[in-house]
Design a protein that fits this description.
The complex is a heterodimer of chains A (233) and B (148). Chain A is mainly alpha-helical and 233 residues long. Chain A is built from 11 helices and 2 strands; from the N terminus they run H-E-E-H-H-H-H-H-H-H-H-H-H. Chain B is mainly α. At the A-B interface, helix 1, helix 3, helix 4, helix 7 and helix 8 of A face helix 1, helix 2, helix 3 and helix 4 of B.
Chain lengths: 233, 148
């Protein structure tokens, strides 16, 4: 396969031939994206990057609070939206996470879990609580399933594909969805994700593999469409 | 790492090696360098699927919502600083002991002085006479009883 060599190099952390020196972007499927934005590029530092901010928040520093909101709010809302499938509920969860940040910042002790991991655990628990409460109340709404008929007649654009991925995520069982959301979208390491979900790394891998298989089945048409687009384009 | 393990991890974490367990990345990299076409095709197919999943991107929260979250920071309670001119001076330990002893002594003295005199006592009756002859009467009484 002719296209695999630069991709392999990219996966191995090497500069592929298609990348311009100093530009920090690679050609990927016809688009130029920054290196590391495609589910990669995690910081190597082990020091908690939020440590100083949390200490300042604990001392009542509003600017530090504003900075931590800027840093983490999109991720918290994203987690809520992917887990709950509802933008308003996702915002409620994110708001609740930050209320807990304000409450616990003064007593936060660095050196255990990263602060961001703690935030993810709080957010995930809030989401799972809501899902269970909703299931108990019989209020679970079956999310819109991806409609594969359109793709048979005309190629899909990225926005349509995005909507179908979003819908397919919502039909995954909640534990599989949680594992996938944490590892793929929230960029948690396998160890962090396992810790957040309270499972072993082996169990996490099993959840991820099942989630991925289920998504492949649900998105087979979109995947084929994307593949053919790559071959022709 | 063998092919079976590589495919197992690929099926869980996808083609992006930065998501793989740290301890497995080296082996995966080495295997990919010398991988067969079949394995590279499997890897490439997973990479396309990763790309499909990556289309579901985060949306930027509305600025009004961000502002609301920031506004939820509880107002910092003002710290009232009380002027304490004596603050730099610390009383020595013996002073604390002395203060306790002085308090005890004072309490004892006040308690003793305030002890009530029983009503109708001989002393009270004598004082009630109050007149100028009281002293003389007292002396007479003393002489009558014990003076002999």
């Amino acid at each position: 396969m002719t296209t695999s060599a630069p991709c392999v190099q990219q996966a191995l952390g090497k500069r592929p031939a298609t990348m311009h020196k100093g530009e920090g972007r690679v050609a990927l499927m016809g688009r130029r994206v920054p290196v590391g934005t495609f589910f990669g590029g995690r910081p190597l530092s082990t020091r908690d990057p939020d440590e100083d901010l949390v200490r300042k928040i604990g001392a009542g520093d509003k600017r530090a609070a504003s900075e931590i909101v800027r840093r983490h709010l999109p991720k918290m809302v994203g987690l809520g939206r992917r887990m709950l499938g509802d933008a308003a509920e996702a915002e409620d969860v994110a708001q609740e996470v930050f209320l807990r940040v304000w409450k616990h910042a003064a007593s936060w002790k660095p050196g255990q879990a990263k602060f961001e991991t703690w935030m993810h655990r709080v957010a995930m628990n809030l989401c799972l609580d809501r899902l269970r409460r909703s299931a108990r109340n019989g209020g679970e709404v079956s999310p819109e399933t991806p409609d594969g008929t359109a793709s048979a007649t005309r190629p899909l654009d990225d926005l349509q594909r995005k909507e179908r991925v979003r819908a397919a995520l919502q039909v995954l069982p909640e534990r599989q969805r949680a594992a996938l959301v944490l590892c793929y979208y929230q960029e948690r390491t396998n160890i962090e994700a396992a810790e957040i979900l309270g499972v072993s790394v082996d169990a996490l891998e099993s959840l991820l593999a099942r989630a991925r298989r289920a998504l492949k089945a649900a998105l087979s048409a979109e995947r084929a469409d994307l593949m053919s687009g790559l071959e022709t384009g | 790492m063998n092919e079976a393990r590589f495919i197992q991890l690929l099926g869980a974490y996808g083609a992006e090696l930065s998501r793989w367990p740290e301890t497995e990345r080296g082996g995966a990299e080495a295997l990919l360098e010398v991988a067969s076409h079949r394995l590279k095709d499997i890897w490439e197919s997973e990479r396309v699927f990763d790309h499909l999943l990556a289309l579901e991107t985060d949306t930027v929260p509305h600025s009004a919502f961000s502002a609301r979250v920031v506004a939820s920071v509880p107002a910092r309670r003002p710290v009232v600083k009380i002027a304490r001119p004596w603050a730099p001076w610390r009383a020595p330990q013996w002073a604390a002991g002395g203060a306790v002893a002085a308090s005890l002594a004072l309490g004892f003295a006040v308690g003793y002085a305030a002890e009530p005199v029983p009503a109708g006592s001989e002393f009270e009756q004598m004082m009630a006479l109050g007149g100028p002859g009281a002293g003389a009467m007292f002396l007479t009484a003393v002489n009558d009883t014990g003076g002999n």
